[in-house]
Amino acid sequence: MAGGVGSRFWPMSRSVHPKQFIDVLGIGKSLLQQTYERYANHICPPENILVVTHASYKDLVKKQLPNIPDENIICEPLRKNTAPCVAYASYKIAKKDPKAMVVVAPSDHLILKNTTFEKAIKACFEKAASEDCLLTIGIRPMRPDTGYGYIQYNESSAKEKDKRIKKVKTFTEKPDLEMAKFFLQSGDFLWNSGIFVWSIASIIKAMEKYMPEEAALFRDGIDSYNTPKEQQYIEKVYEQCKNISIDYGVMEKADNVYVRSSAIGWSDLGTWGSLYQHMEKDKDMNAVVGKNVMLYQSKGCIVHVPKNKLVVMEGLEDYIVVESEDILLICKKQDEQQIRNFVNEVKARKGEKFV
Amino acid sequence: MAGGVGSRFWPMSRSVHPKQFIDVLGIGKSLLQQTYERYANHICPPENILVVTHASYKDLVKKQLPNIPDENIICEPLRKNTAPCVAYASYKIAKKDPKAMVVVAPSDHLILKNTTFEKAIKACFEKAASEDCLLTIGIRPMRPDTGYGYIQYNESSAKEKDKRIKKVKTFTEKPDLEMAKFFLQSGDFLWNSGIFVWSIASIIKAMEKYMPEEAALFRDGIDSYNTPKEQQYIEKVYEQCKNISIDYGVMEKADNVYVRSSAIGWSDLGTWGSLYQHMEKDKDMNAVVGKNVMLYQSKGCIVHVPKNKLVVMEGLEDYIVVESEDILLICKKQDEQQIRNFVNEVKARKGEKFV
């Protein structure tokens, strides 16, 4: 899934080139490229990787993943959250191979431990192949974050082959701080990473049961998929379908959901703070992406500027300095939550072209 | 005179477009354009204005002063300070009109009181036309600045028609702080504005007396001036002539020098501090040049960015934020003297193209 707009990282991430297409950590690869490699190297044959994105990003995907065949880039005409995205891709896959096993993953997250990750995905595949169930990768919470979904689980059953796979009891989206603290202390909650594993048969069955109207819209197009009529059909369907997440549409309702607790070095890189944590730092704890950045008497800053930009910075402590094409943002790190307001004000005063 | 490189205002001012060509105050006109208008409007016919500049700025001058004839742009092949500049222009003028009266002026200063300025120049013209003398415009010092030249004067003689015109006793270039404080307190010192008035006969006479070798170099070319042979001659002469200022070469040595104390609202805009003082400020005392600058919780900053750049700044107090093409500088206002070191380090590490 590579269709989001990533407005939290404005102006680094903008609607014309969102976060998943950016080398946010300055390591030479965008998050999408890292995600592709994570799967292509060890989990599935590269030709089986489908990228679902917004139609406007098709060229960006082709540019960043030049080896991917055109027909593997699935373009959504409108942004309708993850349920339509999963439904569309699932029926397309089912038409080709009704026995397919599927991983659904965001393309703008960080996973540091690739070997552990592969092990986790393979264990989930094994489970999903052997019974009708839906799996998600769960992350042990490290702080009472109110921005994530929390999954409460039952202890692993004795007959479970992989003891890290546990039956899901409840899903709770974005709890308040008090509840998040309670979840963290209780010890039987995991963060929902948004990485799902299932057989194509199980997810289609679940969608048809828990979100039957939306499922029907996509099922009815099965004759047109992978033919020249597909685009026209999909444009019509996206106009009609609801904007809902697969979590809300299926996962929270289904009773055959499992979570695999996995220490994969995961971060959704959802805040400048989490990005900073994963960036390389200089001796003054500055995290710099950019080839020509000269810092003096500066500490704890995040600097993200284009390669060709020369930046001289003096006397800044704990600031975010980001330049992207025609936009410059300078903001205290501790005030990063204000960026959303800045973007709204920019949009209101200067127009869409700057967001 | 419009040939300087203005490195103190890097990166706003750079060797490819120095300070005199920049609208530093954000009022819609560069300092050169303001200087041109100051003279063209009331002091002399526009066709009598000569711009002496470095050869590499010829196109910039033509662009900014489209009405000026090509032959009025005098190009120096090398930078050799003000004495060669004055000598070259003076002999060229003398060939055309040996009776000419001349004002020599920098093009990167601010003069706020144009009416007072015109009065001052006209009083100097009158004096310079009536006797063999050299005049400079003096400014009442406002602080013990160690960056200026100081002029000590004798009280105005009884026969002086304009009581503001006084005989010069001594010149002191860039005194130390203690001496500058003494000059300020004593009350009989003025800052040298670098604006000179004289007849072409008097300056040539003085140059031939006090810097005879340099004067001879330029005098010997008189046959080639205003002919196709001029450029070749001048290139040879600039290779040979010394790098000296007209102050050092003539003014400090001559015994017929006068200063006219004039309250013309002068500033050489030589530091960010002096620039800030003359810029329009918002309610939080931010001085902004740029069309798309949005400030939050920011005070006392100087922001100078291109028109098309959107800047969002939060939580900065007393900073200089300057962007110019491929360079961004962020620096505490109080540390502006460090900018010179930054420029040197940029030059050493990244090469000439960034300075």
Helix-strand layout with pairing:
2 copies of one chain form a homodimer.
Chain A: H1 31-42, E1 51-54, H2 58-64, E2 73-76, H3 82-96, E3 101-104, E4 110-111, H4 114-130, E5 134-139, E6 149-153, E7 165-173, H5 177-186, E8 189-199, H6 200-210, H7 212-219, H8 230-240, H9 246-251, E9 257-261, E10 266-267, H10 272-278, E11 287-289, E12 292-296, E13 302-304, E14 310-314, E15 319-324, E16 327-332, H11 339-350
Parallel strand pairs in A: 1-2, 5-9, 11-13, 12-14, 13-15
Antiparallel strand pairs in A: 3-8, 4-10, 5-8, 6-7, 6-8, 7-9, 15-16
Helix pairs in contact in A: 3-6, 3-7, 6-7
Report on this model:
2 copies of one chain form a homodimer. By secondary structure, chain A is of the alpha/beta class. The first copy, chain A, contains 11 helices and 16 strands. Chain A has helices spanning 31-42, 58-64, 82-96, 114-130, 177-186, 200-210, 212-219, 230-240, 246-251, 272-278, 339-350; strands at residues 51-54, 73-76, 101-104, 110-111, 134-139, 149-153, 165-173, 189-199, 257-261, 266-267, 287-289, 292-296, 302-304, 310-314, 319-324, 327-332. In chain A, the strands form 5 sheets. In chain A, strands 5-8-6-7-9 form a 5-stranded mixed beta barrel. In chain A, strands 11-13-15-16 form a 4-stranded mixed sheet, with no helix packed on it. In chain A, strand 15 and strand 16 form a beta hairpin. In chain A, helix 6 packs across helix 7. The longest helix of chain A has 17 residues, at 114-130. Chain A is globular, with a radius of gyration of 21 Å. The two termini of chain A are 21 Å apart. The model of chain A has no long low-confidence stretch (mean pLDDT 95). Chains A and B meet through strand 12, strand 14, strand 15, strand 16 and helix 11 of A and strand 12, strand 14, strand 15, strand 16 and helix 11 of B.
